[in-house]
Write a structure and sequence with these properties.
Elements (H helix, E strand, L loop, with lengths): L5 E2 L2 H7 L1 H10 L10 H14 L9 E3 L2 E4 L4 E4 L2 E3 L4 E6 L7 H16 L6 E6 L4 E5 L6 H16 L10 H6 L15
Parallel strand pairs: 1-4, 6-7
Antiparallel strand pairs: 2-5, 3-4, 5-6, 7-8
Helix pairs in contact: 1-2, 1-4
Length: 189
Amino acid sequence: MTENYYPISYLNDFIFCPLSIYFHQLYGRTEECLYQCTDQINGKAVHASVDGQSYSHHKEILQGVDICCRRYGLTGKIDLFDISKGLLTERKKKIVTIYDGYVFQLYAQYFALTEEGFDVRSLRFYSYDDNKVYPIPLPCENPLMTEKFEKTVEALFAFQPETFVQENKKKCTRCIYSPLCDRSCADDE
């Protein structure tokens, strides 16, 4: 698709607000506790065992493995993939709502693994705080969501920040970068 690659995590960020990607990169290596909210810090803690590849010692479980999806120009890491079951799991601190961005991240992981020849037969989210599992249909089982995924990836690659105007006040109100953003509508009346 492209010579450029974007992190899979950008999909969820892009849906929330494309400018949040810019601000996240602007902070770069700044100590995260200075700008992240409690939810983000707690979410990172949930991924620590996967990222450190200490969640499981079973040889059939891939954890925290770097992946690349050439078809869509995306890179990232998987949380857990059980090779023998063909089960791809994305862990979240606590799931209240399954947002499209969550599903798109899982789809990107799915496409990357299948490009590498893995037989991915099922997808799911795992909510750490309440120990709940949320099965997600495979992309071939949900053509509408797959189309939305593809359009989001296209929009991510075509994004022009200078023309963007955020009109969703709720997103700005919840955004940790709102105080820095010259386009925030959080304070509009």
